[in-house]
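Consider the tokenized backbone below.
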């Protein structure tokens, strides 16, 4: 049987992996950004928002493939956001595997609300 301890260990591994990947990408993107733009003087008199190219997942992926430091940083943010969502998705799987139907239903409800909230702003 799929024990609670095994589920917790796997869930912890998932969370650690997500955070490590996101932090590694953030560091790599930050170093790359500083290498490319660290010597430039920044003007704070005029606010410049993020470029439109990194406002969507497709645009972020395109920027990452092009080697853009901003794209890499933005991808790390997406991974950091996706990590707890994946935890909830894993909880659905784990509880269903244990045949804990009430917890499965609650986890599915939470996952649905998260998906609705994320897709509503996409």
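A designed sequence for it:
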């Amino acid at each position: 049987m799929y024990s609670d301890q095994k589920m917790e260990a796997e869930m912890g591994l998932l969370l650690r992996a997500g955070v490590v990947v996101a932090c590694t990408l953030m560091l790599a993107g930050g170093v790359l950004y500083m290498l490319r733009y660290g010597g430039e003087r920044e003007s704070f008199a005029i606010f410049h928002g993020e470029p439109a190219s990194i406002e969507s997942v497709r645009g972020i992926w395109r920027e990452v493939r092009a080697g853009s430091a901003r794209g890499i940083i933005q991808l790390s943010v997406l991974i950091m956001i996706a990590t707890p969502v994946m935890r909830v998705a894993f909880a659905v799987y784990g509880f269903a595997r244990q045949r804990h139907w009430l917890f499965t239903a609650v986890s599915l409800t939470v996952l649905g609300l998260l998906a609705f909230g994320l897709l509503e702003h996409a």
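The chain has four helices and no strands.
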